[in-house]
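Regression test case RT-17, inverse folding.

Input:
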């Protein structure tokens, strides 16, 4: 199942720099870049930290790509 990550927009809206956010969630800048640019999905632990730090539900951050079914 493919998901689209909305982190780029969310971080821009909250005025959080990618490098700063990567440090907040204990992730490499390269790893965060891969997630933000939809080249990789995070591990469960990383996704949990992202949601926790941003105080958002996973559905607020990742959406199913069109045409995908549950």
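Golden output:
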């Amino acid at each position: 199942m493919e998901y689209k990550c909305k982190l780029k927009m969310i971080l821009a809206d909250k005025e959080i720099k990618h490098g700063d956010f990567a440090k907040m969630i204990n992730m490499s800048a390269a790893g965060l870049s891969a997630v933000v640019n939809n080249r990789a999905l995070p591990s469960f632990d990383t996704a949990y930290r992202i949601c926790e730090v941003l105080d958002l539900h996973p559905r607020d951050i990742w959406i199913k790509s069109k045409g995908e079914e549950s």
